[in-house]
Amino acid sequence: MSSKNSSAFAGVVAGFADLLITTTAFLAANSAVLLADTLKTGLEFVAVLISWYTIRKVSGPVNRNFQYGIGKLENISSLIIAMLMASCIVVIIVNSVKGIIHPSHISGFGIWISMGTQVVYGFVNTLFFVKNRAIAKRESSPLMESQSKFFFTKAIANGFIFTSLTLSVILPHYGWVTFIDPVSSLLIAGSILLSAFGILSTSLQDLLDRSIEESAQIVILRTLAEHFEQYDLLHGIRSRRSGSNVFVEIFLEFNPERKIGEAQQTIDSIRDNIEKEIIGSRVSVGLTCRDEC
């Protein structure tokens, strides 16, 4: 099982357990913030489940109908996750407004269950954030990048909810304490909004077949410059990203008197150098005598 697959599956198991515990805490308490937390946790579990399914599909054998792979499924899944995060924002804001208009003290044994859960899952979500961020950097995976941001916002939410519940429990005699829950919920919504915006901007650009990043383009140009004496003309470069994969097409013209074996050595050297420096890249070098781009 790949590191991405195992990390996503662990997220599914942890998310399902979190949903069961959070639902139990909500049913055993009278708290608007726990209602928002339960709905948010349910949406988060669906998001993690979608991510795990996507990673399994992307990591599986290549379908002959999709010869470039199904890497864009990662971007589509990231968009779905962003939309689910937007749904969380709506739920949280609605409950926060209700809490501000009709403030009340929280009560019930479920409060203590939730406080313990926030501590445990604050630690768990932080571990998932660190692990997924490392995988995203190593494999240039937009899905794992969205997952790292996703678990980061979950960890922040755990902290806010724990603080909110703690203050409400230890300071019940102050009137302003009733506004802690809705205000904390609005702060959580703000953090989710920032992460969702980042996921949307990245995934939409990759779905539109944007050229690869400037740093990667510099790698390609530097490699071509190092082999400048071994070919006659450069007729074009095309590149695009598909999920965690990068596809690069280079069109070169060689001296017609040169042996094909010698040209192939140059092509192999260019391809190997680029694929070594750009993670997840697949380089094709074509022979041509006309401009292709």
User: How far apart, in Å, are the first and last alpha carbons?
Assistant: 40 Å
Mean pLDDT: 79
Strand content: 5-15%
The ordered string of helix (H) and strand (E) elements is HHHHHHHEEHE
Biggest sheet, in brief? 3 strands, mixed
What is the helix tally? 8
Quaternary state, please? single chain
Report the principal-axis shape.
elongated
CATH H-level superfamily title of the largest domain:
Cation efflux protein transmembrane domain
Q: Which value, in Å, is the CA radius of gyration?
A: 25 Å
Number of strands: 3
CATH topology of the largest domain: Alpha-lytic protease prodomain-like
Structural class: mainly alpha
